[in-house]
Amino acid sequence: MGDKEDNNDIQQHDCGCSNIPCGCKDVTPSGPCGYSLCTTGNERCDDVQCAECVSYCGSTFQIETASGLLKIQSGERLDQIVQKFALMIANGSGVGACTADNVHHAPYNVYSEAVNNNKLTIVWDGISSLSTGFNIYFDTVVAPTGWVQANTAVIVPTETTFEVTNLLPDTEYKFKILAIAGASTCSSVEILVSTLA
């Protein structure tokens, strides 16, 4: 079988984001998927890994400033690290209120699972020890109408999941978690998730 035939056979398989074990350079006839962007300048990887499956395995390190402490721990997931840095950049304050590890901050590891046509579960981790509760908010990405609170009562800090129901099928939503500590609140990154058709 030629390379062209091999790639056509492979590209007929389902390649969802959670099933991406290969890059353009390691596609074989028995591989589960192929890539459509295998031209020069696009895919350069021998292997593609999802961020939720990759951990930082070096020595734990920290950066301490007058405003707070940034700590990256050995074993911490890459997607959690990326969310930490994204919040620091978006808040424009770097390490400090709502972003430092040693002050109140929003969860750093926010994602979704069990996505259905009208519901899904929001999951979080990387919780501040100062958080006294959480509120989950959502809105549509296309033609947003304003943030809607999904929970009716404040979610206790020992909970790390919440099922959001009554969503529209085949609709892209954005979700965020507001972490509460007394009068202080900190907003997580916004995750974008589409419900099934």
CATH uppermost class of the largest domain: Mainly Beta
Total strands: the figure is 10
Structural class: alpha+beta
SSE order, one letter for each helix or strand: HEEHEEEEEEEE
Beginning-to-end CA distance, first to last residue: 37 Å
* Total number of distinct structural domains: 3
Bin the helical content.
10-25%
In short:
With 197 residues, the chain is α+β, with helices and mostly antiparallel strands. It contains 2 helices and 10 strands.
Quick tags:
Immunoglobulin-like; 197 residues; globular; 3 domains; 2 helices; alpha+beta; 5-stranded antiparallel sheet; 12% helix; 3-stranded antiparallel sheet; single chain; disordered N terminus
Could you explain the architecture of this structure?
The protein has 197 residues and is α+β, with helices and mostly antiparallel strands. The chain has two helices and ten strands, in the order H-E-E-H-E-E-E-E-E-E-E-E. It has three domains: 3-48, no CATH class; 53-103, no CATH class; 107-197, Sandwich (Immunoglobulin-like), CATH 2.60.40.10. The strands form three sheets. Strands 5, 6, 8, 9 and 10 form a five-stranded antiparallel sheet that branches. Strand 5 and strand 6 form a beta hairpin. It starts with a helix and ends with a strand. The model is unreliable at 1-22 and 25-33 (pLDDT under 50).
